[in-house]
Design brief:
Elements lengths: L8 H17 L9 H9 L5 E5 L7 H4 L7 E5 L7 H14 L3 E7 L3 H12 L5 H10 L12 H22 L1 H9 L3 E7 L6 E4 L4 E3 L5
């Protein structure tokens, strides 16, 4: 079993890329674990990556990255938003588990993002606690052209939400500290519901997650 301290951020990302490729091809390695592996995991966890993802039942990170027990530290909340509680979990992963890679994972057709667009465009309000969540997404959706078709706006909003969350983490004191140490990488990604493919968001453009040459 590979431990966080034994792998770089680039190597961790490549493992996720390779796992998604296996998922797409129907060649996943998920199966029962030997008892000795469970015994080792009972002693402690050493995940290679942290995933901040949406709670949507169609987007389980362990499945779409073909990752086994102990490989991913997963934080899931509707709209993959950054709250104080979520930030605390991410800080724990970085400071204590030393995961070299943090992926903010959004997905196509996100219901939380769509609800935020409905509030932004039409003033539609959700139930009280849902609206609190929606309101936390709204600052991440600036400058969307209201003349565009809804599905286009939703896709843009999903990406904007991921990018803004990545930027917020990067600009936080904790994010700056981890980056200054030189061993951690933070990336954004989008899961395509219809294809099962994950694509990474580069700083200036979107590109598919494909293996390195």
């Amino acid at each position: 079993m590979i431990r966080a301290g034994d792998i770089s951020a680039e190597e961790a990302l490549q493992r996720l890329i390779d796992g998604n490729e296996r998922f797409l091809k129907g060649e996943t390695h998920l199966s029962g674990l030997p008892r000795e592996t469970l015994t080792e995991l009972a002693r402690g966890q050493h995940p290679i990556a942290t995933i901040l993802g949406c709670s949507d039942s169609r987007v389980p990170p362990e499945w779409i990255f073909d990752a086994g027990l102990g490989e991913l530290f997963v934080v899931r909340v509707a709209g993959n938003i950054l709250s104080p509680e979520v930030a605390g979990s991410l800080q724990y992963a970085g400071a204590h588990l030393r995961t070299p890679l943090l992926v903010v994972l959004g997905h196509e057709g996100c219901g939380a993002i769509q609800a935020a667009l409905e509030t932004k465009d039409k003033g539609i309000r959700q139930h009280s606690r849902i609206q609190l969540l929606v309101d936390s997404i709204l600052p991440n959706l600036p400058g969307l052209d209201p003349r565009l078709p809804l599905h286009v706006r939703l896709a843009q909003a999903v990406e904007s939400n991921v990018r803004c969350t990545v930027r917020t983490i990067l600009e936080s004191p904790e994010g700056q500290a981890r980056l200054a140490e030189g061993w951690m990488r933070i990336v954004g990604a989008i899961y395509e519901l219809e294809t099962g493919r994950v694509r990474i968001l580069e700083p200036t453009e979107t590109a598919s997650l494909t293996p390195r040459p």
